[in-house]
Amino acid sequence: MGNKNIGLNLDGLDFSRECLEIYTQELQRGQQRLESGQEEFTGWYRLPFDYDRTELQRILEAAEEIRKKCTVFVVIGIGGSYLGTRAAVEWLEPAAKAGFPKICFAGQNISSRYHRSLLKELRDKDICLCVISKSGTTAEPSIAFGILKEFLIEKYGREEAGNRIYVITDREKGVLREETNREGYKSFVVPDDIGGRYSVLSAVGLLPIAAAGIDVKRMLEGAAAEAGRVSSGENGSELPKDPGMCYAAARNELYKRGKIIEVFEAYEPSLASFIEWLKQLFGESEGKCGKGIFPAGLQFSTDLHSMGQFLQEGNPVVFETILNVEDPGEDLIIPEGAGAALAGKGMSEVNRAALQGVTAAHRKAGISVIRIDLPKADPFVFGSAVWFFERACALSAYLLGVTPFDQPGVEQYKAEMRSVLEKE
């Protein structure tokens, strides 16, 4: 069976695709900016075709080395340094190979309770660390790396601890690069032309994802296939044929109509961290200059029992984007004890009925619903989805008139935090 493409369904909107054609010229200008290679931090756009094959081989060799050394691989990072990995590991767990280490995360918060619990869990395990930071000065991963490095040295001794530390950082500069060169850690590069939230398909994501036993070559093939749909003109690279452009245009049209919150929804719990990655991707790319669509996330049907009322009858500032996994994998048949109305049906059938029923109810209530169809849970589709959303997000930000690839506001809270610590 061939690989199916990601699909976009806009039937849940109260305007047609043709209404989006007013955005065509602006979107095409945005597309030219992405393709030009002149726009800063757009290295992710050509990455599925131009990635360093030698670096990838080193990543695969390191992943095999990690598998032999440990049963737990701790990924230390925050934001774009860990969200893509977490999204892949949770979504693609069934696709991972047996015998690869469990992936744990540290440095994504400053909670002593979380990290004490993690240390307790690691006490009797064989572990390796992967610290991901371009500068090496971000507070959360710096603290976690310090704690876990000390733990590693106490457990294995300094020399062996150094053999169990893998670093992904800047090629030449920064305190983490200096330590890596001094201590001889095995290291990989955070590309200069790719920002953190767009870095899933670089070494930032590929090393820990490969260490989990997931086929990263297939991920890159999926991204290349999605990128190829655009570069080959399969979609026409124009509205209303191009799904990425249509999605970007639809979001902006909804924004103009007062829909300032986009709720990403999934009926598969394994997509929870993928939604967290989407929240960072869109929130950090678009939230500037007093503009932007606020990204939120819900898990259905669970959250229908807490947020369903608001969506149905609350403040009408929301539109919904459903991430629909068309083939969730092996089904489970519902037994007679669940009642005659459900007995004998597959759980996936009932889940699909929930999706269809909720969509119909929300549409009748006047809520705009976008559906993005993801063929199945496998590495190829994951890579396709990452590249699809990265491009759509960049184009959407261009339509808003903001730069997709910086985050100046983030630096303000860091400066205030440093000021508070210096006073204490």
Q: What report would you give on this structure?
A:
There is one protein chain. By secondary structure, the protein is of the alpha/beta class. Helices cover 49% and strands 14% of the residues. The strands form two sheets. Strands 1-10-9-7-8 form a five-stranded mixed beta sheet, with helices on both faces. Strands 3-2-4-5-6 form a five-stranded parallel beta sheet, sandwiched between helices. The chain is globular, with a radius of gyration of 22 Å. The termini are far apart. The mean pLDDT is 93.
Uncertain regions spanning at least 5 consecutive residues: none
Mean pLDDT: 93
What coarse outline follows from CA principal-axis ratios?
A: globular
**Helix/strand/pairing category:** alpha/beta
Question: How do the strands line up in the largest sheet?
Answer: 1-10-9-7-8
Q: Give the N-to-C terminal Cα separation.
A: 62 Å
Features:
424 residues, alpha/beta, 5-stranded mixed beta sheet, 5-stranded parallel beta sheet, 10 strands, 49% helix, 14% strand
Describe the structure concisely.
The chain has 424 residues and is an alpha/beta fold.
Layout of secondary structure:
Layout: E1 7-12, H1 24-36, H2 43-50, H3 53-69, E2 72-76, H4 83-91, E3 102-106, H5 112-122, E4 127-132, H6 139-156, H7 158-163, E5 165-169, H8 175-183, E6 186-189, H9 203-211, H10 216-231, H11 243-256, E7 261-266, H12 272-286, E8 294-299, H13 308-313, E9 318-327, H14 347-364, E10 369-376, H15 379-400, H16 408-423
Parallel strand pairs: 2-3, 2-4, 4-5, 5-6, 7-8, 7-9, 9-10
Antiparallel strand pairs: 1-10
Helix pairs in contact: 1-15, 2-10, 3-9, 4-9, 4-12, 10-15, 11-15, 12-15
